[in-house]
């Protein structure tokens, strides 16, 4: 698809996301020659910046966070010339006339054909307002021109607010104008899930309850909440990671093959997965959902604060910084196969991966072999770091007898030496500019994911004494989570 000339308007332009992710990703697109010939990025926020000061700040972000951070200064300067800034109070509808005027001006000066892409990277309380104010200015629709709106996560804080937000958006925009961001979907390895599953004939026959014993999905982080305590304390691991990123991974692992690789075909299949997740009963929530909160400890000799001591966090907070849960997908493919999902802050390492545990052979012929446990092959799909795919298989140790050893068939993206692997924001920004929503979440699927999560949130709210386990910084979360995985000698994979 040829990319059309356009203006990208980023609301929340003075914020961290613009500085660390969005503008560095735009610069990467510029370096890859993927931006349209006529392109402008207009940053909008309340803070007072001149174009020059804004550019200076953005260049600083590029130098730290872009994949092309070592690019020659001339390239950075040429790119920075495309950045502009407008200071308005985005909560005040009247101020939007200034935006319209600025857009008219930039559009006629830079020949961007009246095409506008709006990106909301503001505090979430503005998500219902900004699209409405844009619509009041008539900026939501223009025949033959691009009018799209990208909304950062979190999309709602619960089912009700997500439904409300969708409804408000759909009053002024068509679904195909709305791009709901989940940056996990922009990760190359996440997209590769579809290719692994549907371009290889060896996996599909095994990818079901007959051959898969259980599936693990982990997103572990080694850092704490850093300077985001205020936000995180209202959010917790469930809203911050599970409801969006991890359930999206689940959908890609569990979905049926689409009939074509097209946005709605793929998103229809993902929706069906969310609809088929078995709702958790109160007993399930009590037994199969484990919450934890990190406590002060030394990690590699360095003292780390407990969560309740973090800036912006309520000292009596019961917000979870770790969550592990077990769920089932009630359909023909997955009947009774447990899926285990976990995410946490201040764990021993930063890793996101999906682990498919195949069933063991029907009979263990090498039973005397103590080194080989024959619990079944595992396939590890590594989202990051060290992106790749690993299959563990048994192999005979050369020599007398039948000694079996587990060996790895291992592929790392880093082996593709000359291939450029775009960052998640780079890929997703480009898709929104191109008008491809495949890697964005659709409103109905998002609501379906909230529908699964909501009873758990309600349960915690109504039962404040429900267990919340402390775990020391640098550990793998509460010990009780180890026993969540069913099966003899079975527990999580603990990657190092
Ligand atoms: C964000 C969460 O959406 O994802 C953060 O708000 C989290 O808390 C981050 O750290 C993780 O993303 P990644 O790409 O580093 O795994």
TrEMBL record:
GO cellular component: cytosol
Positions that bind substrate: 183, 187, 221, 240, 345
Residues the record marks as active site: 245 (proton acceptor)
Gene3D superfamilies linked: Dihydrodipicolinate Reductase, domain 2 (3.30.360.10), NAD(P)-binding Rossmann-like Domain (3.40.50.720)
Coiled-coil region(s): none
E.C. numbers: 1.1.1.49
Highest taxon, organism lineage: Bacteria
A Pfam cross-reference name: G6PD_N
Keywords, comma-separated and alphabetical: Carbohydrate metabolism, Glucose metabolism, NADP, Oxidoreductase
Gene Ontology biological-process entries: glucose metabolic process; pentose-phosphate shunt, oxidative branch
InterPro entries (alphabetical): G6P_DH, G6P_DH_AS, G6P_DH_C, G6P_DH_NAD-bd, NAD(P)-bd_dom_sf
Domain Glucose-6-phosphate dehydrogenase C-terminal: 194-493
Residues of the signal peptide: none
Catalytic activity: D-glucose 6-phosphate + NADP(+) = 6-phospho-D-glucono-1,5-lactone + NADPH + H(+)
Domain Glucose-6-phosphate dehydrogenase NAD-binding: 9-192
GO molecular function: glucose-6-phosphate dehydrogenase activity; NADP binding
Pathway(s) annotated for this protein in UniProt: Carbohydrate degradation; pentose phosphate pathway; D-ribulose 5-phosphate from D-glucose 6-phosphate (oxidative stage): step 1/3
Record-listed NADP(+) binding positions: 46, 153
PANTHER family: GLUCOSE-6-PHOSPHATE 1-DEHYDROGENASE, GLUCOSE-6-PHOSPHATE 1-DEHYDROGENASE G6PD
HAMAP family in the record: G6PD (MF_00966)
NCBIfam families: zwf
Protein's job: Catalyzes the oxidation of glucose 6-phosphate to 6-phosphogluconolactone.
Family the UniProt entry places it in: Belongs to the glucose-6-phosphate dehydrogenase family.
Designated name of the protein: Glucose-6-phosphate 1-dehydrogenase
Taxonomic source organism: Dysgonomonas macrotermitis
Gene from which this protein is expressed: zwf
């Amino acid at each position: 698809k040829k990319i059309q000339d356009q203006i990208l308007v980023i609301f929340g332009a003075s914020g961290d996301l613009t500085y660390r992710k969005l503008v560095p990703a735009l610069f990467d697109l510029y370096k890859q020659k993927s931006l349209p010939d006529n392109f402008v990025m207009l940053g909008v926020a309340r803070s007072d910046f001149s174009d020059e000061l804004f550019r200076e700040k953005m260049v600083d972000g590029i130098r730290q966070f872009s994949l092309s951070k070592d690019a020659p200064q001339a390239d950075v300067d040429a790119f920075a010339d495309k950045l502009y800034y407008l200071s308005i109070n985005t909560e005040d509808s009247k101020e939007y006339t200034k935006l319209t005027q600025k857009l008219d001006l930039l559009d006629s000066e830079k020949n961007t054909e009246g095409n506008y892409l709006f990106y909301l990277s503001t505090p979430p309380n503005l998500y219902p307002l900004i699209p409405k104010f844009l619509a009041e200015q008539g900026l939501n629709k223009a025949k033959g021109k691009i009018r799209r709106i990208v909304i950062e996560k979190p999309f709602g804080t619960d089912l009700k607010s997500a439904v409300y937000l969708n409804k408000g958006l759909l009053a002024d925009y068509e679904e195909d104008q709305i791009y709901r961001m989940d940056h996990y979907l922009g990760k190359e390895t996440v997209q590769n899930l579809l290719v692994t599953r549907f371009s290889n004939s060896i996996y599909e026959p095994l990818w079901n309850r007959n051959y898969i014993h259980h599936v693990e999905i982990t997103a572990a982080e080694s850092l704490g909440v850093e300077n985001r305590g205020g936000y995180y304390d209202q959010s917790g691991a469930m809203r911050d990671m599970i409801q969006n990123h991890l359930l999206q991974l689940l959908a890609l692992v569990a979905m049926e093959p689409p009939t074509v690789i097209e946005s709605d075909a793929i998103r229809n299949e993902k929706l069906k997965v969310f609809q088929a997740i078995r709702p958790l009963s109160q007993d399930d929530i009590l037994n199969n959902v484990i919450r934890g909160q990190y406590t002060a400890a030394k990690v590699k000799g360095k003292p780390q604060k407990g969560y309740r001591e973090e800036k912006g966090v309520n000292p009596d907070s019961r917000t979870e910084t770790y969550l592990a849960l077990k769920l089932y997908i009630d359909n023909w493919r997955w009947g009774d196969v447990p899926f285990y999902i976990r995410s946490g802050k201040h764990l021993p390492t930063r890793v996101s991966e999906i682990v498919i545990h195949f069933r063991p052979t029907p009979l263990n012929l090498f039973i005397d072999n103590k080194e080989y446990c024959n619990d079944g092959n595992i396939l590890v799909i590594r989202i990051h770091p060290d992106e790749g795919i690993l299959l563990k298989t048994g192999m005979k140790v050369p020599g007398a007898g039948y000694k079996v050893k587990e060996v790895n068939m291992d592929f790392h993206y880093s082996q593709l030496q000359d291939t450029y692997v775009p960052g998640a924001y780079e890929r997703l920004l480009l898709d929104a500019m191109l008008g491809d929503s495949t890697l964005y979440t659709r409103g109905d699927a998002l609501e379906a994911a909230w529908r699964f999560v909501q009873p758990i949130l309600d349960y915690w709210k109504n039962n404040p004494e429900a267990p919340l386990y402390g775990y020391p910084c640098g550990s793998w979360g509460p010990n009780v989570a180890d026993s969540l995985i069913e099966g003899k000698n079975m527990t999580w994979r603990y990657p190092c």
